[in-house]
């Protein structure tokens, strides 16, 4: 079954402002990546919304956001470490 093949990943982040900042930067990174393209049979290719078809992403917000920078990378790396510690407590 399809549902058996789904995996989720997450990182622990404090505060909505930090999550939104990182979300914008990650969307901007993916949207600007020339190598990051969906497959030919991706359903978004048939979207009536040009931004979805052109970006290869199922959203239109933050497509023109700046890609991740060095500070964002540090936030991500620190959050990964915090997440590892969080999971070890479980």
Q: What would the keywords be for this entry?
A:
single chain; 90 residues; mainly alpha
Strand-residue fraction? under 5%
Radius of gyration: 16 Å
Succession of helices and strands:
HHH
Structural class: mainly alpha
Number of domains: 1
- Shape assignment: globular
Low-pLDDT runs: none
pLDDT averaged residue by residue: 91
First and last CA, distance:
29 Å
How many helices does DSSP assign? 3
Please provide a written account of the structure.
The protein has 90 residues and is an all-alpha fold. It has one domain (16-89). 48% of the residues lie in helices and 0% in strands. The protein is built from 3 helices and no strands. It has helices at 16-32, 50-55, 70-89. The model has no long low-confidence stretch (mean pLDDT 91).
């Amino acid at each position: 079954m399809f549902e058996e093949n789904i995996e989720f990943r997450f990182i622990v982040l404090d505060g909505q402002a930090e999550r939104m900042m990182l979300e914008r930067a990650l969307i901007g990174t993916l949207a600007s990546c020339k190598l990051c393209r969906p497959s030919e049979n991706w359903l978004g290719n048939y979207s009536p919304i040009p931004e979805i078809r052109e970006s290869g992403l199922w959203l239109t917000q933050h497509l023109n956001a700046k890609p991740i920078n060095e500070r964002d990378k540090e936030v991500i790396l620190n959050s990964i470490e915090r997440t590892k510690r969080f999971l070890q407590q479980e």
